[in-house]
Amino acid sequence: MVIKYLEWDSSFFNKKIGLLDLSQNQKYFEVENDYDLIYVVSDLEIVNNLTNYEQTHSETKVVFSKILAKEDKLVYDAIVSVLNSPPKESIYQLAFESGKFSRFNLDVNFTNSEFKQLYKKWVDNSYSREFADDILVYENLNESIGFVTFKIFENYATIGLIAVSPLYQGKGIGRKLLEAVESKLVVLGVDELKIPTQLQNKIACEFYNKMGYKIIEEKKLKHYWKL
Q1: In the prediction, which pLDDT does 48 show?
Q2: H or E element at residue 207
Q3: How far is CA 116 from the centre of its chain?
Q4: Left (φ > 0), alpha (ψ -120 to 50) or beta: where does 212 sit?
Q5: 49, 196, 204, 218: most buried by Cβ count inside 10 Å?
Q6: pLDDT tens string 170-188
């Protein structure tokens, strides 16, 4: 089994990072010992450890999907596109909230500084259109209290980041942001919206279920750091 060298991750974190993608029927494998970190992805639970590596994080990655209904476009005056505006500190803070269940935040071998720099980079790359086709922000009294990014592919779109300020959660803002994305996609002729998250993020999973989304993909992901 060959480990795929991840150039972007390795360059960003200044570590040699690789990906080991296992098939369902592959239970035994050998790995090189010159990686600082290996992401292991599989369809089944991995029970054996990697020699000379320590497992520090485990999660179940899921992708939710919904076929969008051809309904009238919803318009929320409080939600605006900020793609052509410079990123603000409030957007970065919302990105950190979006990533609080991220493996880069929960794995103790990543520092809080590394986690925040990663999500700031995600925001910056969204503004540059590398990671997103639009950024929608929910504003209240000139304060950005929620946001969502999305990117369109050939016949579907994906949510990149979505979050609501902890002070305003539970007030339906997340629902309005997601509905605004759905409405924009319908106008653009996109039929399907996919949302990746972690099964451990129970609040998010319950929210997506209530919004009519269903899980279409499930993978086990673990981090192994060199001893």
Answers
A1: 66
A2: helix 202-210
A3: 14
A4: left
A5: 204
A6: 999 999 999 999 999 999 9
